[in-house]
Specification:
The chain is mainly α and 321 residues long. The protein has helices at 5-17, 26-34, 39-50, 55-67, 71-84, 89-102, 108-128, 133-145, 154-167, 169-182, 186-199, 204-216, 220-233, 239-251, 255-267, 277-290, 294-307, 312-320. α9 packs antiparallel against α10 and α12 packs parallel to α14.
């Protein structure tokens, strides 16, 4: 019987509070990780102490440290995972993810030293498990961004994209879209993204990615059509509401609908990854400014700055009024 995440969290907290209590099991820690529960870090640390030779425990700790924003520590636990499981593809995948998170935090010389380790981790993961699409996706990005001196190259990226397609057609199309965007072939990128979305029409991540790509290329009618379709199929979804407002603020079109969408967005409960309220107020201020309603525009831009006084774009927009 699967324990609900809330009950599981409570049971773990009680366990940690009790002297001599047993550490959580790997499956319990994984449930906390999937729920992105902050107690996952403490649970994973306890698990590695209880089972120091278990690669799965070290993988869980690596994931928990990454969720907690501890990339440097995640490298250490990722290395322990690969030592405990030298043939465990997931261990190398998460070590690569740890390097990938850490590389954005260090200087150029450290980046150059770390990049081959990142590449080697993902390549080892793929060698151990050719079906591991997440590792192949990471390699696509690496090969596109890295100089040839440390193993980069667009032909290598294309080879990975072709391999991904064998295992997951939708993700293969997304890899092709990444390559096309790198080459600034945006029409090809959009076609690839559309193909991926057609294979998984209910995937919100694909819907959102395609809408953002339409907006980036100023294909407003296509963006509007995709947003309206999403809203019709999922009337309670908040993401398309924000995107309708964002598109209106950028394009100067659909101003009335964009305003209504953002006002609705501000009243609805949202997920952690959804744009924060200050961004909605900022977009609403831009829409109202474009509609000639300057006093209302100022009020909304000021509302954005009240939440985030350092919001540069809102400050600039307010100054222009």
């Amino acid at each position: 019987m699967r324990i609900a995440p809330v009950l599981l969290s409570l049971s773990l907290l009680l366990a940690f509070a009790a002297p001599g209590a047993e550490a959580a099991t790997l499956s319990e820690v994984q449930s906390l990780l999937e729920a992105r529960n902050p107690s996952a870090l403490k649970a994973a640390e306890a698990l590695t102490k209880a089972t120091p030779k278990d690669a799965g425990a070290w993988i869980a700790l690596t994931r928990a440290r990454l969720q907690a924003g501890k990339a440097e520590a995640a490298i250490e636990s990722g290395e322990r995972a690969t030592e405990a499981g030298p043939k465990n593809a997931q261990a190398f995948l998460w070590l690569g993810n740890a390097y990938g998170n850490r590389i954005g935090e260090v200087g150029m010389l450290s980046k150059m030293a770390m990049a081959p380790k990142l590449r080697d981790a993902f390549e080892r993961a793929v060698a151990l498990d050719p079906t591991l699409v997440d590792a192949r996706n990471a390699l696509v990005l690496f090969y596109l961004q890295a100089p040839s001196a440390i193993g980069g190259g667009i032909d290598k990226a294309r080879a990975q994209a072709a391999a991904i397609t064998k295992y997951d057609r939708a993700k293969g199309y997304l890899a092709q879209a990444q390559i096309a965007m790198h080459e600034k072939k945006f029409d090809q990128a959009i076609k690839a993204y559309e193909s991926a979305a057609a294979l998984k029409p209910g995937d919100d991540g694909l819907r959102l990615g395609l809408i953002l790509l339409y907006q980036e290329q100023k294909r407003w009618a296509d963006a509007y059509g995709a947003i309206r379709k999403w809203s019709t199929e999922s009337p309670d979804a908040v993401k398309p509401k924000y995107q309708l407002g964002r598109m209106a603020s950028l394009s100067g079109q659909y101003l009335q609908e964009g305003e209504a969408a953002l006002r609705a967005y501000l009243k609805l409960p949202r997920a952690k990854e959804d744009p924060a309220s200050q961004h909605a107020y900022y977009r609403l201020g831009l829409i109202l400014a474009k509609a000639g309603r300057k006093d209302e525009a100022r009020a909304n831009l000021q509302a954005a700055l009240k939440i985030d006084p350092k919001f540069k774009e809102a400050k600039a927009a307010l100054a222009e009024l």
